Amino acid sequence: MTASTRRTVLSLYMRVFRIARTWPQSGAASDTETERKYILQEARTLFRQNQQLTDSESIKRCIEECEARIEIGLHYRNPYPRATYLPPLGLATQKGRKLRAQQRLRKQAKPIYLQSHDET
Questions:
Q1: What is the 3-state secondary structure (H, E, C) of the chain?
Q2: Structure pTM?
Q3: Predicted confidence (pLDDT) per residue in 1-23, tens digit
Q4: CA–CA dist 73, 113 (Å, integer)
Q5: 59: closest CA among 69, 50, 68, 46?
C-alpha cells in the first residue's frame, strides 16, 4: 500500500467516525443511538476485514464502496444499505445453465455500495 493510499484509507476511516459522532437526529433518540452504533460497528468490521488487502485494484474498489456508502447514507439520512432488486426473470430453477446465468446477472447487477455487505 502506498503512502497516499494509506492516507486516503485513514481519512475515510476517521470521516466515518466523525459522521457517526454527529449523526443527525432521525426521530426517537434510541433510534439515533442504534444507528450510530451500527455505523461504528459496520466500519470497524469492514475496515478490519479489508486490512490485509495488498492488491491496488481491490483497495480502490473498497475505497469507492466506502465513499458511495457515505454519500448515500448522508443523502438519505439512513445508514443501512439500500435494498437491491433481482433482475428480470431473477428466479431460475436450481440446476442447469439458467441458474449459472442468473447468478452471473445478480453479480453484475449488484451496486458498488453493496459489494462487501454479504460478506460480513
A1: CCHHHHHHHHHHHHHHHHHHHCCCCCCCHHHHHHHHHHHHHHHHHHHHHCCCCCCHHHHHHHHHHHHHHHHHHHHHCCCCCCCCCCCCCCCCCCCCHHHHHHHHHHHHHCCHHHCCCCCC
A2: 0.73
A3: 789 999 999 999 999 999 999 99
A4: 10
A5: 50
Q: How far is the C-alpha of 30 from the C-alpha of 76, rounded, in Å?
A: 19
**What are the angstrom distances between the C-alpha of 18 and each of 13, 22, 29, 76, 78?**
9, 6, 18, 17, 16
| Residue position matching grid coordinates 461504528 | 40
> What is the C-alpha separation between 47 and 70, in angstroms, rounded?
14
